[in-house]
Design goal:
The protein is mainly alpha-helical. The protein has helices spanning 12-24, 28-41, 46-57, 64-74, 81-102, 107-127, 135-149, 151-155. 68% of the residues lie in helices and 0% in strands.
Length: 166
């Protein structure tokens, strides 16, 4: 095993910029690694926590189960209830999109349930949002539009879903 090298505190801002850049380049594993390095130096760094949550969710298509659980566990460390609700919604929305993309028996019902959970989180975030911040509304509308464009998903929404019962 290799012992990890410690990031200097003065390097945190530049490291976070790199993590954002890696996310934009669709390299979430690299962004995740940088966030872990930042959090090793500054465990309460809100930007690193949010970027880590998003980097983990960027990996849902490859490793849904463990990445979803890791990301969800990090939500409790976010500094505000608004952020906890908002990013919980994003995690559910992204999980829904993975289910929708996988297809197969029951995937529509699973996707629908995750979209509805996302929309609930976005509603909760909206109720306590900072003034002028309508990000939760934008995300809620995205979920609604996806469901509206996929009537077969909505039609199968009452099918039992083993995945949602976990």
């Amino acid at each position: 095993m290799f012992e990890l090298k410690r990031l200097g505190r003065e390097a945190v801002p530049a490291a976070l910029e790199k993590a954002q850049r890696y996310r934009l380049l669709n390299e979430p594993i690299e962004a995740e690694s940088i966030c872990l390095d930042v959090l090793a130096v500054d465990p309460e760094n809100a930007e690193a926590l949010v970027t880590l949550v998003l980097s983990l969710s960027d990996q849902f298509e490859r490793r849904l189960g463990d990445k979803f659980d890791q990301a969800r566990a990090l939500l409790a460390r976010l500094p505000s209830e608004y952020e906890r609700r908002y990013y919980a919604g994003i995690l559910c929305e992204r999980r829904a999109k993975v289910s929708l993309g996988q297809g197969g028996p029951g995937s529509g019902a699973v996707a629908y349930q995750w979209f509805r959970e996302a929309m609930q989180h976005f509603d909760e975030a909206h109720a306590i949002r900072p003034e002028g911040n309508d990000d939760s509304t934008l995300r809620w509308n995205t979920c609604a539009r996806i469901l509206n464009r996929n009537p077969a998903v909505v039609a199968h929404s009452d099918e039992p879903s083993r995945e949602m019962l976990e």
